[in-house]
Specification:
Elements lengths: L2 H17 L7 E11 H4 L6 E9 L2 E6 L8 E7 L6 E13 L7 E7 L2 H23 L7
Antiparallel strand pairs: 1-2, 1-4, 2-3, 3-6, 4-5, 5-6
């Protein structure tokens, strides 16, 4: 048996309860961030404050007072602690829990998505808007 295989098996057994369905661990962090919800951008541009608590290579766990629904597209902006550069992360909310510590605060687990998902969502909004505009422009049918 290989040493790497044994170590992987030992790590998986040790952290199985902590990881749940995830395949990698999350790093515990304390970062201030801003959260923009894509569905809100259709009507108004508002940034919500957020506190990132945990991060992994493909997602994050943060707390915000904004009302976020499951499967909402989010853009999280934060400064990298290593060099201070601004980082933008597009993600989708997969789990929302009410925060026990604060009133009207939500804890959100989100998974990173690529730009194609965001572009598809924006295209869907454009086509929906044009369909609604076309329906408004049509005259109502005359009754006999």
């Amino acid at each position: 048996m290989s040493l790497k295989g044994e170590l992987d098996k030992l790590i998986q057994e040790k952290f199985k309860a902590e990881l749940g369905n995830r395949t990698s661990r999350r790093a515990k962090v304390k970062l201030r961030a801003t959260c923009v919800i894509e569905r809100e951008k259709e009507f108004f541009a508002k940034e919500h404050s957020a506190a990132i608590k945990e991060m992994s290579v493909n997602g994050l766990y943060f707390e915000t007072e904004a009302l976020v629904y499951k499967n909402d597209l989010l853009r999280i902006a934060f400064r990298s602690p290593a060099d201070g550069t601004m980082k933008m992360l597009d993600c989708v909310a997969v789990r929302i829990d009410e925060s026990s510590g604060k009133k009207d605060a939500f804890q959100i687990a989100a998974v990173a998505v690529d730009q194609t998902k965001v572009k598809e969502y924006k295209e869907m909004l454009k086509t929906r808007a044009s369909q609604l505009a076309g329906a408004v422009d049509k005259p109502a049918p005359k009754g006999k």
